[in-house]
Design a protein that fits this description.
Helix content is 18%, strand content 27%. It is of the alpha/beta class.
Amino acid sequence: MTHPAPRRSVAQRCGHVLVRVHDLPRAVDSFRAAGFQVAYATAPEHRALHAHVWFREGPVIELLTTPPGARFMRLPVDLRFGRGAGGRMVRWARQEEGFCDLALLVEHAELAAVTAQLTGEGVPCGRAVRWTRRRPDGAETRFAFAYPRSGRLPFLVTPYEPRQHPAGTSHPNGARAITRIVLGVRPDDLPAVTRLAGDAPDLRLEEAPVTAVRAVHIAGLADPLEPALLHGAVLLPADTTPVPPTTHGKGSSTS
């Protein structure tokens, strides 16, 4: 008996791991104190909702906060960004600080076709949304994203245009690149996660009670980072033994 060849995952690598923070300027200051270069994603900085820790290549860290009243915005967010977006936004707004999501990079721009294919295969997705941000230097950043309707699953994003990885990035703490993102996966979510990202070399899947990012391993860290500066994120040197499975509480849940 012949068996059909397994389908490749939609995303071949991770784009960015998201860290929910309550106060973005304070979190930016903390991450800078931990030895990272941090850049606000939009201007004016005092109103920004996103900031990035860039590396020369590979996945990046995004710090994000939610707008006031976000926990009550499920319906308008669904209407603007597609079904599934509102529930995800509400979850971000209600959880404690720490990892809140994972973006998977879809290398080509035909995100709408990808989401339609996934929906037909039993991984329902909201529509693809094209987005533009104006950076503090006045330049525009363009990309598209789409959210699976299940708020536990990683979402999809296209590469930023123009390319955002600054060639001159040098973090005082020695960090060079994210080498591994550890994603706990609830058994019922495993088929969908595998379809979305099973081929990604920078992603480690571990069985867990709740689907959620659990840890990020970073090459080049000269010393362990001070947890109090990381706003709930678990950032480890690349050679650190993987974190043992744990039951995720409210702060790290993606349910």
